[in-house]
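Open question from group meeting: does this chain pack into something compact, or does most of it stay loose? Before anyone orders reagents, we agreed to write out a predicted structure and look at it together. Recording both the input and the output here so the notebook holds the full record.
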Amino acid sequence: MNKIMEKFNDFVMPLAEKIQGIHFLMALSESMQAMLPVTIVGAFACLLAFIDVGGYQQWLASHAIVMQFFMTIQSLTISIYSVYVLLVFPYGYGKRLGIQEPLSCIPLAFVCFMLLTPVNLYSDIPMAWLGHTGLFSAMIVTLITVRGLKWFLDHNITIKMPAGVPHMVENAFKILIPFCVIIPLFGIVGFYFQTTDFGSFHNVIYTLIQAPLKSVGLSLPVYILYQILMTLFMFCGIHGSSAVAWMTPIMTAATQENLAAYSAGLPLPNIIAGAFENCILVGGIGATLGGCIVMFLFAKSRRYKQVSRVAIVPQIFNIGEPFLFGVPVMLNPILFIPYMGGVLINTLIVYISVATGLVARFTGVTVPWTLQGILGGLLGCSVPWQGFALQMAILILDMLIWYPFIRLIDKQALQEEKMTEIQQG
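C-alpha cells returned:
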C-alpha cells in the first residue's frame, strides 16, 4: 500500500508543478481570491434586496430608499464584475510574468477592453458587457495586452530616457511605444466587430467561447473531475485550488449569471452556482467536518481525542488543515476511502437533488468560505430551508461514511497506546 501511495504521489507532484507553472491560471486564481470580498458584499446586498422571508418584502416596498441602497451596492460590485477583473488581474499576471512595473498593465488592459465595448459616445456604456457576460473577454484582453507589453519590453522596443530622469517619467516613456501600438490595434478590432452581425468583440467571445465552455464545464462529468482533482491534490498536501484554477472563470460566470437572474426575478439558469459547492464540501475540501465530529464524539485513544479537540473548532469554520494534517488524513491509505468517497457521493446527491427540483437552485450569493459549515445552504439557496436541510443531510451522511474508518484507526491507536503502557511498565 505504501508503494501505491508513493507512485500516486510521484504522479500528482509533477502535475501540480506543471499547473502552478501556468502563470495565467495562477494569476487568475489569485485575482479571483483578491476580489472575493467585493463579490461577497455585492451578493449579500442582492440577497437583502430580494430575499422573501415573512413580511420583509412588504417592509422593503414601503422603504424604497433601503431597496435603492442595496441595489446600488449590487450594481456597483457584482453587476460590473468584469471591471474589477480588469483592475486586478492584469497587475497579477504582469507581476507573474516578471514585468518590472506591473501597474502599467492595468490601464493598458482596461483601455483596450473599453475600446472593444460598443458605447454611445459621450453618453453611456452598456452595463451588460461590464458584468458576467464580459468576463471571458476581460481575461482574453488581459492575456493579449500583458503578453504584448512584455514582448515589447523584452525586445527593448521602448523609449530610453537619459540618466537622472525621475523613475515615474522614465517608466511612462518606456511603455509609450507599446501603448501607442497595442491600443490603436484594439480600437481597430473593436470598430470592425461593431460592423458585423455579432455587434461587438465581446459578443463573439461570449457566443463562441464563454457559453460553450460554461455548458461543458458545468456538466456533471466535468464537475466530478473537478472535485476529484481538488481532493486528490489536497490528499497529497498540495492545496486543491492549484489543481482547479481552470474552473474559476466558469464557476464565477455561472454564479454571476444566477445572481443576475435572481435580482431580476427570472428563473435561475445554472444548477452549479454560488453555494452549491458549500453543500458538497461541508467542512472544506474533502468534506471533513463529518469525520472530525465523529472523532470528537467517539474517539477513545488519547491521540485522536487530543487531535479532535484541537481540530473541531476550526473545522466548524471550514478550516480543515488541523484535522487533515493532525490525524493525518494526508497520504493515509485507510482514510483515502472516506476522504474521496464522501466527496463523490456528496456531489452526486447534491447535483441530483437540485437537477430534479427536489431542492431549489442556488441564487448565486457567494458566502464566505469560513462561514460556519451548515449555513452556506441556508443563505445561498433560493428556498433557504431546503438548502439548510440538504446540507444537514450531507453532514449526517458524511458522519456515517467516516464512522467505520475513524473507529478503525482509533482502535489501532488505542492498542498502540496500551502496548506502550505495558512496555513502560
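Observations to bring back to the group:
DSSP finds 20 helices and no strands in the chain.
The CA atoms of residues 136 and 249 lie 7 Å apart.
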